[in-house]
């Protein structure tokens, strides 16, 4: 009997091993080259490449994950640490005693457009796409930004309270886009995710009847003054949104004070906007939004200010956070990446952190293809993957706790978008073929989101000599170490990493590549 049981057990192990080998072999990228410098990975209802669930090797070994212009996509290899220096020309030293910000997470936005594109696929392909972002086999997205009512990535203009003079918001109701598309997809994503998703709400515009210009678009602010009925009603609108989503078991970690408040101060702005000066935002939070949220069923939901380009810092933060009444309700400062090149990260982000270290900094919107000089979808663009990785590393090295991409999925044109403000996305859907393409930017996100768990802490990292490499290092909650390296140069760079806890790690960053190294320390 004992022998028989053992033989059965042996057969099971053999079959499991064969199955594992098959699944590993079938998780590679199916490359498609559209002539933009690198490849996309094609996925359908039955197949998609996946990095899988990451388990680090024991002490003495380290895992390396490589993506490159040459076509590698999260390609895993194992290396050995060694007691002595490898003699490489460049040494990166982990400085664990230097501790910085804790990571919150990474993610993208469930816009109307993203939901439309995901739901345009067959049930199997939808499942694959959501798994790529949110499951343990996927890339570990933990933040989802949710527009409150319509934005440009909608097919129509709407708010949740379009009846004029409805100051009590008696007619407040979620849109079909919420109930039939975004909410079901968010529920499915939450079911797949190994941890609770951090939902982040942002509004683009108040109802037109509350606004000075009587329209959702263009230059316009709330009527009246902070403390007045429009400002009070606008704060109440936020609470009503949270209440309606809570009915579907979706609770929000945070909300922002409004998407890009400076857009609503611009003449002839083409899509939804609501203008706020920093002084108006300060007073609205102090007199209306802060007290309303505190008195609601959601007192623990964070309020994050700005939600606009970082070039507005540190001025915006000084105006809002220096005020005791508004500052006590606020948790963080949200930045977008557009026009980042116009102001150095240390002057904007770094200065803001040092002035107000008790408030976190977080990236809440970024996309490629937004510039008139480089517009729309480019399938397989490696340059855009490098733009993402460069910005994320720069942000992380200046105290940012997370980085949120824009649309989770768009179509081949970069839409739908009612004002034709087409951009790119890490996932592009071709509904006619029932396939989706994972762009190089998807893998850029993966090198961070897959490995930097919530609670990971950035630590010091020093280079022995000047280098073209860009890098950032973290200690995770289990004390394992993650090091992310970007090489935007046309030549490979050999280097070694010295972690006093484990020794020297030898590695190579190929030309135009992104590399994540990870290892256990005990």
Automatic annotation (TrEMBL):
Residues 455-517 form the Glycosyl hydrolase family 30 beta sandwich domain. It is found in: Lysosome membrane. One of its GO terms (cellular component) is lysosomal membrane. Transmembrane segments: none annotated. One of its GO terms (molecular function) is galactosylceramidase activity. It is an enzyme of class 3 (hydrolase). Its EC number is 3.2.1.45. Keywords: Glycosidase, Hydrolase, Lipid metabolism, Signal, Sphingolipid metabolism. It is a peripheral membrane protein. One of its GO terms (biological process) is regulation of macroautophagy. It catalyses: beta-D-glucosyl-N-dodecanoylsphing-4-enine + cholesterol = N-dodecanoylsphing-4-enine + cholesteryl 3-beta-D-glucoside; 1-(beta-D-galactosyl)-N-dodecanoylsphing-4-enine + cholesterol = cholesteryl 3-beta-D-galactoside + N-dodecanoylsphing-4-enine; cholesteryl 3-beta-D-glucoside + H2O = cholesterol + D-glucose; beta-D-glucosyl-N-(9Z-octadecenoyl)-sphing-4E-enine + cholesterol = N-(9Z-octadecenoyl)-sphing-4-enine + cholesteryl 3-beta-D-glucoside. Its main location: membrane. Pathway: Steroid metabolism; cholesterol metabolism; Sphingolipid metabolism; Lipid metabolism. Belongs to the glycosyl hydrolase 30 family. This is Glucosylceramidase. The gene is gba1.
């Amino acid at each position: 009997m004992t022998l028989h049981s053992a033989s059965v057990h042996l057969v099971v192990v053999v079959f499991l091993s064969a199955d594992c080998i098959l699944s590993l072999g079938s998780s590679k990228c199916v490359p498609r080259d559209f002539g933009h410098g690198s490849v996309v990975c094609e996925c359908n209802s039955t197949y998609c490449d996946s990095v899988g669930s990451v388990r680090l090797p024991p002490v003495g070994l380290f895992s390396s994950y490589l993506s490159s212009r040459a076509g590698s996509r999260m390609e895993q290899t194992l290396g050995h640490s060694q007691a002595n220096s490898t003699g490489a020309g460049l040494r990166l030293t982990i400085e664990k005693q230097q501790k910085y910000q804790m990571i919150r997470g990474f993610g993208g936005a469930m816009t109307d457009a993203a939901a439309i594109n995901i739901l345009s696929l067959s049930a199997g392909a939808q499942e694959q796409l959501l798994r790529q972002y949110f499951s343990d086999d996927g890339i570990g997205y933990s933040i989802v930004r949710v527009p409150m009512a319509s934005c440009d990535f909608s097919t129509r203009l709407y708010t949740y309270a379009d009846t004029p003079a409805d100051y009590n918001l008696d007619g407040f109701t979620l849109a079909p886009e919420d109930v039939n598309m975004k909410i079901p997809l968010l529920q499915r994503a939450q079911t797949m995710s190994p941890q609770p998703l951090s939902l982040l709400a942002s509004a683009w515009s108040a109802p037109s009847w509350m606004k000075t210009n009587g329209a959702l678009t263009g230059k316009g602010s709330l009527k009246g003054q902070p403390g007045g009925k429009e400002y009070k009603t606008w704060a109440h609108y936020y609470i009503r949104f949270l209440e309606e989503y809570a009915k579907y078991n979706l609770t929000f970690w945070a909300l922002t004070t409004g998407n890009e408040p400076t857009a609503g101060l611009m003449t002839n702005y083409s899509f939804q906007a609501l203008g706020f000066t920093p002084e108006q935002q300060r007073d609205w939070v102090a007199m209306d939004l802060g007290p309303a949220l505190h008195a609601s069923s959601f007192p623990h939901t964070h309020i994050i200010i700005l939600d606009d380009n970082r070039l507005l810092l540190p001025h915006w933060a000084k105006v809002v956070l220096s005020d005791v009444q508004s500052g006590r309700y606020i948790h963080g400062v949200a930045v977008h990446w557009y026009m980042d090149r116009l102001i150095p990260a240390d002057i904007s982000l770094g200065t803001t952190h040092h002035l107000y270290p008790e408030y976190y900094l977080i990236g809440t919107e970024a996309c490629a293809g937004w510039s008139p000089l480089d517009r729309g979808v480019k399938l397989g663009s490696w340059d855009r993957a490098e733009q993402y990785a460069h910005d994320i590393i720069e942000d992380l090295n200046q105290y940012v706790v997370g980085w949120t991409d824009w649309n989770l999925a768009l179509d081949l044109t970069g839409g739908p978008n009612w004002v034709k403000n087409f951009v790119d996305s890490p996932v592009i859907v071709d509904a006619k073929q029932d396939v989706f393409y994972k762009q190089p930017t998807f893998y850029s996100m993966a090198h961070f989101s897959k490995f930097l768990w919530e609670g990971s802490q950035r630590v010091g990292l020093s280079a022995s000599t000047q280098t073209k490499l860009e890098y950032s290092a973290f200690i995770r909650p289990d004390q394992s170490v993650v090091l992310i390296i970007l090489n935007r140069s046309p030549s490979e760079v050999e280097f070694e990493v010295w972690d006093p806890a484990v020794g020297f790690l030898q590695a190579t960053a190929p030309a135009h590549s992104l590399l994540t190294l990870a290892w256990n320390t005990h």
